User: Fold RecA family profile 1 domain-containing protein from Capsicum baccatum.
Amino acid sequence: KGKTKTVWVCSDCGYDDGQWWGICKQCNGVNTMKRFSEGVERPMSGFEVSENVTRSWLPHQSVRAMPTKLTDVNKGINQSNWRIPLSGLFGAEVGRVLGGGLVPGCLVLVGGDPGVGKSTLLLQIAAIVAEGCDMGGPAPVLYVSGEESVEQIGNRADRMRIGTDEIFLYASTDIEDILEKAQTLSLRALVIDSIQTVYLRGVTGSAGGLSQVKECTEALLRFAKKTNIPVFLIGHVTKSGEIAGPRVLEHIVDVVLYMEGEKYSSHRLLRSVKNRFGSTDELGVFEMSQSGLQAVSNPSEMFLSEQQSDSEFLAGLAVTVIMDGSRAFLIEIQALCVAGSSVSRQVNGVQAGRAEMIISVLIKQAGLKLQENGVFLNVVSGVSLSETAGDLAVAAAICSSFLEFPLPMGIAFIGEIGLGGEIRTIPRMDKRINTVAKLGYKKCIIPKSAETSLSSLDLGDTEIVACRNLKEMINIVF
Ligand code: TYD
Ligand code: MG
Assistant:
């Protein structure tokens, strides 16, 4: 049989491409790409054509694929640059974390603790994608929930004043059923809330179990790649901080985003941990309000507002950045120095030996008269400091309490302290500083020796202060 050349042409604007796209890359028309082959006009919709591969997302059904010439793949298209833009302030913030918009056919996993706001976030993303102000008008987005009823989601949308015509809600946990329904809608995007509630018939184990989670994710990946429809998965995070089910999940998907928030703060961070289409340095900052999440375009205001309300309580408080896997976290360290007869040292979240060493170095090398003081140390919100990167913040917190000098908000400390009072560099300096800058901190105190490695970072308005030793740090900050 001779070679047949197939080309896909947009029935609206005439754009042609070597493969089918759910959305025309030129005019953003939905489901307008029609197939032509051998010069014979055979317009069909994308889904009709995929009849023979209709159920190919199911496991163990191999699809016949042929190797493609690299030059054919790249001919005339720059696929990696083509993205579905997300409009508005909120859309821009989400789009930035995604690496500059939504890539067609990508599988995005959004993880986070229960109650942090994942469903809220995805409903809002669904709304802006469906409205599609920058994409040639509205198109359907399907929001599937295995956690809540359609009415519950409707109520939430109502409170958030989302009223677009193009969001479809569906309560189901059967992947086959979901993907069959999805096919009939010519979707622009699909949301699955959550991966732990869906199951695939014929796969052993209950929903949320290792093999179900893995097989379902793979089925959704095949669906996304086949149809070029972007798919969002919500995943719950276990107590140990991993997305429930296998870590495998993170390997299957294209993009992994984590949503984080403090218990008593309305701020939410959206962090990219893995991104096949962009950098993982991006950090989105949002605020949870009565009507959903709002982008915080100037994160430094977060700190200003806190400073004004409790400025008098801040002596003895310093901020540092710790790493957990590939993620950087800001944590607060509190110190309390009490002059008097009891010279006890109580530490929480800091290794006792490490704390003792920092106190001794402060006495001997920085001339702080801590001998007559009881020193209490505490890492806020129960985190334990397992790295030496927090040394400098511990020292700064102690100085701040001892001198009764509140540190200004918006200043972070990163560095290890040596016995000579010198400040030493620590691993992943760039990643930590990047997080500080993205969050709009005004100042970051770092070791002098780390200064040279930062030239490539975009630091915005964050001022980097490099110090050789503790004395220098105290002179600059206090
Ligand atoms: P939700 O999106 O249900 O979290 P998840 O899906 O991650 O479990 O959001 C949970 C919290 O968000 C809930 O405690 C209420 C709060 N919330 C608001 O403050 N404002 C809102 O507009 C919405 C929809 C929720
Ligand atoms: Mg939810």
Summary: Residues 118-119, 147, 193 surround magnesium ion (ligand 2) (CB under 6 Å). Confidence is low (pLDDT under 50) at residues 38-53. DSSP finds 13 helices and 22 strands in the chain.
